[in-house]
Amino acid sequence: MELLTHGRQKFPRAALAASSAGLGWRGIAAELRAHPAGDLPPFQSDQLEITLALAGERDAFVSRKGAGLRQQTRVDAGTIWISPVGVGEDDIRITRPLQRILHLYLPAQPFEALSDTLGGSRFGAQSIRYLAGVQDGLVRQIGQTLLDEMAAPTAGGRLLAESLGAALTARLVQAYSDRTDRLPAPPRQALDARRAERVLAYMQAHLAEDIGLHDLAAVACLSPFHFARMFRQRLGMPPHRYLAQLRIEAARRLLRTGLQPLADIAVACGFSGPSSFTRAFRQATGVTPGVFRRGGGPA
User: Fold this and answer.
1) Higher local confidence (pLDDT), 67 or 93
2) Could you give the number of structural domains in the chain?
């Protein structure tokens, strides 16, 4: 099942306020929905879903049944529900309309990849528990960052989303798996100077392309689950921010020295189009590309 198909099938009556569709994310998807009161149809997914209430609603409850459990949860801001892969839900009821509910979808494959990275310890997607009423600051932070990226896509948006997807997968395994053994400690290997140089050279050479977390991790010969942390330790910033800076700097050079149309500059620097380019450039520099070209921006 394509990740965003999940929401369309499970929530046919819920209004869609924002979506990661069209942003090029891989390995994670997100939707912001407004849900009416009422019953939801029975559903069984082959993906993992995390639901986060961004705002509470007085006297609102969500009742649901799955994995042999009946859960009733008050909807407060920050409340989290976890629906694992393969769990059938046949009785979901929302007692009052809910205006700001964020849904995050993860495929099963990254959980298997994480298990392989950990030396064969089996922390599959099926090991995540069916939970309601969870309070988790890290999951909330990841959700809010993805929501911000949907609202105002940045120059390194795909890389950011995939890094957060890897972090979310690891968090679920660490905190919400039914396995009793602990998540093994990450390897002590570092992103040494030679690997870092390869990664930076790859970024620079492929600015016009859609660079993802797995691309950079492969260049560094590291697991995607450890690459972002090691990159930050080495460079002092996460890879998506470094990539965004490279793209903005490349755009600044082209705007200063050439007469290329803005649409061509956007493509050459890895943006999906003029609108996303303008938005990211203004966010980074405080002015639009057109104003910068006319000498109205910072040097």
Assistant:
1) 93
2) 3
Please report, as a single letter, which amino acid is at residue 81: W
Please, are residues 103 and 48 in contact by the beta-carbon 8 Å criterion? no
Nearest to 139 by CA among 5, 242, 49, 16: 49
Q: What is the spatial distance between Cα 281 and Cα 273, in angstroms, rounded to a whole number?
A: 12
Q: What's the Cα-to-Cα distance from 116 to each of 98, 111, 146, 174, 223, rounded to whole Å?
A: 39, 9, 26, 15, 10
Query: Residue 204 — φ and ψ, nearest 5°?
Result: -65, -40
- Whether 187 is in a domain gets the answer no
Any idea what DSSP says for residue 77? T
CATH number for 277 = 1.10.10.60
33 lies in the same domain as 105: yes
Q: Is residue 114 part of a domain?
A: yes
Structural domain includes residue 188: no
- The candidate with the shortest Cα–Cα distance to 131, out of 203, 97, 180, 80, is 80
Flag whether the pTM goes above 0.85: yes
- Identify which of 26, 1, 11 has the alpha carbon closest to the alpha carbon of residue 62: 11
Alpha helices (H) in 34-122, listed in sequence order: 109-117
104 with 28: CB under 8 angstroms? yes
Which amino acid does the sequence have at 67? A
pLDDT one-digit tens code per residue, 175-213: 998 875 555 555 556 789 999 999 999 999 999 998 999
Write down the pLDDT at residue 193: 92
Residue 187 has what DSSP assignment? P
Residue 172 tokens read as: 């679920």
CATH number of the domain enclosing 136: 2.60.120.10
pLDDT in tens, 111-121: 877 766 665 55
Cβ-contact 170, 225 below 8 angstroms:
yes
The whole-number pLDDT of residue 113 equals 77
Residue 261 domain flag: yes
State residue 225's pLDDT score. Answer: 86
pLDDT at 285: 92
